[in-house]
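Handoff note, outgoing to incoming analyst
You'll be picking up this chain. Sequence as last confirmed:
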Amino acid sequence: MENRKPGRKRKTGNVQRNNVKKVRPDNRRYVSIRERRRRRRRRVLICRMVILCAALALLILLVSVIMVSCRHDKKEAKKPKAENTKILDEYYAEFAKDTGEVKAGFSEWFLENCGEEAWKKISGKLKKATLKDEDFYEVTGKTLHVLSDMYRGWLKDERTAARHHIYLRDGGEKEAANLLFAGDVCLEEDDFVLDYYDQVKKLDQCISPEILRRTNAADVFLLNHEYCISDRGEPLEGKYYTFRADPKRMKLIEEMGTDVVSLANNHVYDYGPDALSDTVDLLEQAEIPYVGGGRNIKEAKQPVYFVVNGVKVGYVAASRAEKTRYTPQAENDKPGVLLMYESEELIQVIKEASLACDYLIAYVHWGTEDSDQFEDYQHEQAEELLNSGADMIVGGHPHVLQGIEYIGGKPVVYSMGDFWFNEETKYNGLLDLKITGKGLKEMSFVPCQQTEYTTRYLSEKEEQRELYDYLEELSDGVKIGDDGVIQEEKENTDYKREG
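Most recent structure output, in case you need it:
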């Protein structure tokens, strides 16, 4: 028998509930469970996002591969026929043979840089054997000369182009290249226009703002630099007029918007070889190219080219202005200008330059001072230069306007007169050309007048008409409209170079 204490009952399994102590849940345990559930859901969501991103990346990669494949197949399908490629390369080789070494592979370059649509159009011309140089301009907006320079790598940037004497100009939205020409400019320090400028201190009080606006807005503005700019040298012995400007005056030429100057005249050498060399140095520092003169004969003969709106225009210059020759011809190691008392050297320069550009202007210094009539020798020499490949001749030196005529459909402007030179009152102006890949589209005259050391724009219609009538009287077979547009009376105004 068990020993039991009296009065104490034995416990059984049926314990009364109200006697059981309730245990509170562990709050920390429940928080941990919720956190684990949240983390689990987050891991699931991240996993789904990773899978989705991977699938999307795979899809993008797949689409890219398909597109590249399709593009490759498309390009292969449109690869030019070998026959057309050969014909175009032969066409280009014939075109480029006289302008330097012919580089192979022009057709492939053309397709890559001008596009399949341009290639199709050129190929169509090839098939019909009707391809002409102007077709490239119509199809691409660039002449074959410009495309050729691009192909050779000459136009890849401004510095490279300048090494080849080519200067790039942004013609904006205009369809044609805008070329502007002025006559003689003289910045002699004593008793000329600089005395007046030093009083007023502003160029737009010496040259009308309307004129300066035009010269700065033009794609290419050329003037005759009829003085040296230096602080060295002595005036040539025996010469009555000698012109020299202080180097600080270079800013005036820049302020005019000058893009290129002619040094082919009878005053650029007035203070000898050192002063001419200084003039060239200062022009180069101002990044203004020059023609017709230089440190040696190579520089004096060197043409300058500008590419504007897909067209390449060229400039050359020479002088035939002195009865007593003070200004020497440049030599291999001596400064001077290119002279044209005999035509042979200038003709050779023109022949070579005309093969390298679409439109070539010869800017010449000739004629009789203070005479408004051009002479027979000028007409005869103009004919020689035009037949050699020049597309146009613009002249200076007489200090007054002379007439205009067309020779074989090509214009000759015998003298632009003084642009800003002295105190004399006389008509002058600007010659305004519009050039496209097809040639001269329009030529007009901007009416001006020099008076009392200033050059002013003639804004009144009556004044303009009087000047146009005067210029018509001096000219042969030329009509000038009220808008200044110059036309040959035969109305053969669109000149196209043959060949």
